[in-house]
């Protein structure tokens, strides 16, 4: 199988965005408050949004299953308060669950968390548990910067995060470390903030000892790890200067990278530097980069093409495209096994 572990519902029907606009407007004008039950979206609207977009491209590119979570830029945890984020997360998670119910063989649900700046991370646990236990989510997205580009949250190694990590270990689900929209004009959301966050999260983990306390915790750093593979020598040197073990020894039992890197040299470098057991196939389509590369004639985010052009052995290719995902996402593996895969 070809498993894409990084997909977002970027093509959700218009009523979802309209509901969110009303919710945001109601922060200053309570008369605009939308129906707390959420937007009215039919199964046919979901089918139309998926079949013409993600499912069509999955079929064209030979991708069997996508782990599908709410649109990352829509999480926008910096907007409103915890109550707003909680309502928004519930609605978005329910919608991704419905997609997976309509296409059980093609999508597995992921979930966002109701994070909010300055709010105790432990407040996300009820929605985390609901998403996994009731909705069947195989992963959750954890935003290391709910402030939206101002980085007011403590590092992921801070003890305030520990209840979240404890719950993830208990439920045996990994988390993808994924920020949302940047409200800081110095950081473009997808071109800077996303990649900055990937790099920052890795450095936070390198300087801490999180996995000593949580040896079974699994974190996925998306977008190929940001700058991490390109600057692997820098991180090794910093670990040495800080008296830390080599990153391979201290981090790579627990930290994984996806293949959302949109050119061949980048994928080549990722797979040359990072052990193949730590790389999981992903494309994040339809996402931030939707165009066609005029140099190749193919979509930038057609990452399967790059991975299969790296010269990996059949065994390593199968690990990257399927087996690593089933190992890191045991609830996904159980779901696929139950389907006969």
From TrEMBL:
InterPro entries named in the record: ACMSD (IPR032465), Amidohydro-rel (IPR006680), Metal_Hydrolase (IPR032466)
Coiled coil (UniProt feature): none
Superkingdom as given in the UniProt entry: Bacteria
Xref: Pfam families: Amidohydro_2 (PF04909)
GO MF term (any one): hydrolase activity
Any Gene Ontology CC annotation: cytoplasm
Keywords: Hydrolase, Lyase
Domain Amidohydrolase-related per the UniProt entry, residue ranges: 3-330
Biological processes, Gene Ontology terms: secondary metabolic process
PANTHER family: 2-AMINO-3-CARBOXYLMUCONATE-6-SEMIALDEHYDE DECARBOXYLASE (PTHR21240), ISO-OROTATE DECARBOXYLASE (EUROFUNG) (PTHR21240:SF28)
Protein name: Amidohydrolase
């Amino acid at each position: 199988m070809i498993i894409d572990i990084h997909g977002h519902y970027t093509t959700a029907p218009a009523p979802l965005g309209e509901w969110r606009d009303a919710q945001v407007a109601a922060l200053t004008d309570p008369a605009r408050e939308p129906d707390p039950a959420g937007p009215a979206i039919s199964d046919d609207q979901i089918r139309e949004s998926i079949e013409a977009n993600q499912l069509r491209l999955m079929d064209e590119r030979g991708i069997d299953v996508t782990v599908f979570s709410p649109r990352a830029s829509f999480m926008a945890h910096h907007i409103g308060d915890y109550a707003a984020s909680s309502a928004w997360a519930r609605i978005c998670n329910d919608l991704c669950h419905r997609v997976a119910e309509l296409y059980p063989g093609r999508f597995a649900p992921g979930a966002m968390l109701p994070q909010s700046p300055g709010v105790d991370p432990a407040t996300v646990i009820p929605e985390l548990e609901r998403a996994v236990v009731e909705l069947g989510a195989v992963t959750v997205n954890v935003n290391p910067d709910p402030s939206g580009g101002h980085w007011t949250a403590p590092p992921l190694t801070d003890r305030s995060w520990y209840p979240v990590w404890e719950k993830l270990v208990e439920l045996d689900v990994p988390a993808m470390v994924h920020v949302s929209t940047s409200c800081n004009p110095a950081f473009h959301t997808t071109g800077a903030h996303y990649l900055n966050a990937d790099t920052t999260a890795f450095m936070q983990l390198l300087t801490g000892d999180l996995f000593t306390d949580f040896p079974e915790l699994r974190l996925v750093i998306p977008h190929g790890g940001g700058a991490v593979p390109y600057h692997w020598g820098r991180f090794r040197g910093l670990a040495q200067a800080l008296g830390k073990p080599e990153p391979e020894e201290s981090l790579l039992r627990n930290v994984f990278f996806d293949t959302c890197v949109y050119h061949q040299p980048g994928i080549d470098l990722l797979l040359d530097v990072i052990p193949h057991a730590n790389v999981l196939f992903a494309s994040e389509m339809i996402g931030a980069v939707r165009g066609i590369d005029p140099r190749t004639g193919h979509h930038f985010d057609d990452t399967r093409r790059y991975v299969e052009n790296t010269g990996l052995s059949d065994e390593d290719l199968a690990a990257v495209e399927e087996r690593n995902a089933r190992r890191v996402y045991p609830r996904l593996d159980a779901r696929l096994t139950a389907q006969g895969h």
